[in-house]
Amino acid sequence: MKIENFTIDQNSPVFIIAELSANHNGSIDTATETVKAAKRAGADCIKLQTFTADTITLDCDKEDFKISQGTLWDGQYLHDLYKSTHLPWEWHEKIMEVAKQEGLICFSSPFDPTSVEFLEKLNVPAYKIASFEITDIPLIELIASKGKPVIISTGIAEQEDIELALDACRRMGNNDIALLKCTSSYPAPIEEANMCMIKDFATRYNVISGLSDHTMGYTVPVVATVMGAKIIEKHFILNHDIGGADASFSMNESEFKEMVKAVREAESAIGRVDYTLTEKQRKGRDFCRSLYVTKPIKVGEIFTKNNLRSVRPGFGLHPKFYNEVLGQKSSVDIEKGTPLKWDLITR
Questions:
Q1: Which of 55, 140, 231, 347 could link 112 by a cystine bridge, Cβ 3.0 to 4.6 Å?
Q2: pLDDT in tens, the chain (347 residues)
């Protein structure tokens, strides 16, 4: 998978996405400053959400449309929530220009066909399917048909939902797919992160796998990295003090920077399968065990357990020769503390 100049595969660095979501807080200045802060914090990408209240739900006061799931937004009607949090479409181009100036990739999550067509006009390099849209197969087919990478969050998905979404993409001839493990709770309990799914997604479905995270802190992103995640998405806010619908589970610049540092360190720690030693490790072998003479030995004297031991440092013969040497005779006089070599043994 390649998004602009960033290649995402099993050998690439983790692609780190800062999710703007509702954290523009109704201000284009806040939105553009958030983009700049995301760059300073080490993000590779800033992601938007493209919808209006009317494209995502109905303006209806029936109980079906009132939030009552034990969330941060309980008591609000869906239309009211989305009306207050949506990113005005006329801001998109300006935000994308700022992202480009900052060297950040920028794309969005569309929530209906009109938003897809709008984003196509802006030539976005990829698309993100939000967790709650994974069941909208016609929308996924439309997005996949554009021939761009498709990143799918799985927060509320059962296995059948995931497979239907993947089939929809592939039916459109699009195999450029990533699946993100996601827990659609805000914030999400760390014990529900289930990071073992990262590997399973990759092997079971032959896709890039990653994480869309709503937990607090960066423990889960680090674990995801170790489990093979190649994409990590985290909500990003300019300043917690500005508040807003997503503020409580978003990271500010310093928090996000710490997460990026931890993820990059985790990548370094994972390394690769390689049994060769570094130069520093080779020098460390000086302190491993080897065979040393523990008492003065005369020429012709037999090597025994009383005058030969395996000790540190490692300048003598390998300890694997210990039993072979026992019973053999010294070829010269040997002082205590001499590393045993073959030329000191009569053979």
A1: 55
A2: 999 999 999 999 999 999 998 899 999 999 999 999 999 999 999 999 999 999 999 999 888 888 876 666 677 888 988 898 899 999 999 999 999 999 999 999 999 999 999 999 999 999 999 999 999 999 999 999 999 999 999 988 999 999 999 999 999 999 999 999 998 777 888 999 999 999 999 999 999 999 999 899 999 999 999 999 999 999 999 999 888 778 888 999 999 999 999 999 999 999 888 899 888 888 989 999 999 999 999 999 999 999 999 999 999 999 999 999 999 999 999 999 999 999 999 98
The first and second tokens of residue 65, run together, are: 């449309």
Which two structure tokens, joined as six digits, stand for 345? 């043994």
Contact 113, 136 (CB under 8 A): no
Regarding pTM above 0.85, the answer is yes
From CA 134, how far away is CA 177, in angstroms rounded? 13
Task: Write the CB contacts of 138 (distance below 8 Å, at least 6 apart in sequence).
Answer: none
- Structure-block tokens of residue 153: 């969050």
| Preceding amide of 13 cis, omega within 30 | no
- Please name which of 180, 172, 179, 262 lies closest in space to residue 217, comparing C-alpha atoms: 262
In the chain, the domains with their CATH numbers are 2-51+86-270 (3.20.20.70), 279-344 (3.90.1210.10)
Q: Please check whether residue 86 is in contact with residue 54, taking contact to mean a CB–CB distance below 8 angstroms.
A: no
Q: Are 23 and 235 in contact (CB under 8 A)?
A: yes
**Cα distance between residue 292 and residue 311, in whole Å:** 7
